[in-house]
Amino acid sequence: MRRVVVTGLGLVTPLGADVETAWANILASKSGAGPITRFDASDQKCQIACEVKPADHEYGFDPNKRVDHKVQRQVDPFIVYGIDAAGQALEDAGLTDMSEEDKLMTGCSIGSGIGGLPGIESESLVLAEKGPSRVSPHFVHGRLINLISGQVSIKYGLKGPNHAVVTACSTGAHSIGDAARMIKDGDADIMLAGGAESTVCPIGIAGFAQARALNSSFNDRPEQASRPYDKDRDGFVMGEGAGVLVLEEYEHAKARGAKIYCEVIGYGLSGDAFHVTAPEPTGDGAYRSMQMALKKAGMTPADIDYINAHGTSTMADTIELGAVRRLFGDAIGGVSMSSTKSAIGHLLGGAGAVESIFCILALRDQIVPPTLNLDNPDEGCEGVDLVPHVAKKREVRAVLNNSFGFGGTNASLVMRKID
Amino acid sequence: MSDTADRVKKIVVEHLGVEADKVTEEASFIDDLGADSLDIVELVMAFEEEFGVEIPDDAAEKISTVSDAIKYIEENKG
């Protein structure tokens, strides 16, 4: 059986535009939240977000490093973030100079939950104000979700499967799981897999606020707004950025002497079949997703040391926790579970990929990241180590990452250390 | 160099992300400046906006170099 390992990582986040900076800030319990700077949000119910910081910031993002000027002008920010994170991952994996043979067997599976919402919004205004003849010829392909995979394949000459998942906030996790299967099935030896999002724009904030999904009572204290499992949580904080992993067939990675972070050993998927935005109240969909991932991994709950929860800082947090409790039974006492959304907000389609990378770094460094702002755990949190406030050194042999999305779509990934 | 030429070159530099010294009057958008057909559509739109001229599709198709653009604009601007 073909096994799949991770050999490269790339991150663009509100707490850093490279893997080591973002991880160091996560472990230092920093928050990426602040007042919205992209537009005047004074008429919005929610006026805060976790934005990717500008290039001159201490841990800002410089798009000029890896994305052509012309491409930057033509595409939405989620594509720029995705191209940069993919480039980082290839560099990390030592794959920037591949043979033609390898390129034929290297593909992309980098998705997004929503895609180019800021550009759809602004170009709609151009259409309304100036008419159809002023709409940009780059409008469509600069907003399409699969254009991270498209742009990355063109930039690096990657001729294998070119794919893009769209499953709302579980996009990043599904992207990794689907890409791992493509490698297992022999469609590719190497896959760039992940997700990206950037919807900090008036209609993005207003839309999620109207769906009652965003926080609204922390505008004066942005760093305290994302507080998964806390009694005072009142909605997620929008984040933005990208996470991309290099997945590689194990023997291929070994043969070229690649640095191997971990093995992607289990992947589970399920549907709630319940409601468009609310999770099924018993957490059954989440339960079945995690259960399938563990079964595929040939593991039991006692083998899992860390769970990076979906934990968005909404009412759904305790539903997920209930599902974990049901699945883990007595093993619940041995696992640490935290939500890094408390630090970087909710990256929507990017979340599952970025959080999988944090899981992988937890495996690498034997430390689990904290859940910030967990001052008063809600009912139902008793007896579970939610890693409040500060990171925690501990043994981490295997990790589980959960991502759930609108439409009732669930994905879980299990990754483990490899000897 | 005329004012029109300066403004055309500035737009080309901005839109195509090329070095200013490469944008000579003889330069072909596609062969020398790395543009594709969609970039030319976008450039033509930018010229229309900047100079208040209308460049119909059949005229736009004949614009392949920087000097073609300058010449068309000089002849047709109000």
From TrEMBL, chain A:
Q: Which PROSITE patterns match?
A: KS3_1, KS3_2
| Species in which this protein is naturally found | Novosphingobium lindaniclasticum LE124
Which top-rank group of organisms is this from? Bacteria
The active site annotation covers 169
Q: What is its EC number?
A: 2.3.1.179
One Pfam short name: Ketoacyl-synt_C
| SMART domains (alphabetical) | PKS_KS
Alphabetical list of PANTHER family matching this protein: 3-OXOACYL-[ACYL-CARRIER-PROTEIN] SYNTHASE (PTHR11712:SF352), POLYKETIDE SYNTHASE-RELATED (PTHR11712)
Instruction: Please give the name of this protein.
Output: 3-oxoacyl-[acyl-carrier-protein] synthase 2
The record's family statement is: Belongs to the thiolase-like superfamily. Beta-ketoacyl-ACP synthases family.
Q: What is its main location?
A: membrane
Which locations, inside or outside the cell, does it occupy?
Cell inner membrane
Q: Name one GO cellular component term.
A: plasma membrane
From TrEMBL, chain B:
InterPro entries the record matches: ACP, ACP-like_sf, PKS_PP-bd, PP-bd_ACP, Ppantetheine_attach_site
Principal subcellular localization: cytoplasm
Posttranslational mods: 4'-phosphopantetheine is transferred from CoA to a specific serine of apo-ACP by AcpS. This modification is essential for activity because fatty acids are bound in thioester linkage to the sulfhydryl of the prosthetic group. 4'-phosphopantetheine is transferred from CoA to a specific serine of apo-ACP by acpS.
Which keywords fit this entry according to its UniProt record? Cytoplasm, Fatty acid biosynthesis, Fatty acid metabolism, Lipid biosynthesis, Lipid metabolism, Phosphopantetheine, Phosphoprotein
Q: Where in the cell is it found?
A: Cytoplasm
Q: Which domain of life is it from?
A: Bacteria
UniProt protein name: Acyl carrier protein
Task: Show the GO MF annotations.
Answer: acyl binding; acyl carrier activity; phosphopantetheine binding
Give yes or no: UniProt keyword Phosphoprotein.
yes
Xref: PANTHER family? ACYL CARRIER PROTEIN, CARRIER DOMAIN-CONTAINING PROTEIN
**Organism of this sequence:** Novosphingobium pentaromativorans US6-1
Q: Output the Pfam families linked to this UniProt entry.
A: PP-binding (PF00550)
GO terms (BP aspect): Kdo2-lipid A biosynthetic process; lipid A biosynthetic process
Carrier domain residues: 2-77
Is Transport among this UniProt entry's keywords?
A: no
Q: Which residues carry this modification: O-(pantetheine 4'-phosphoryl)serine?
A: 37
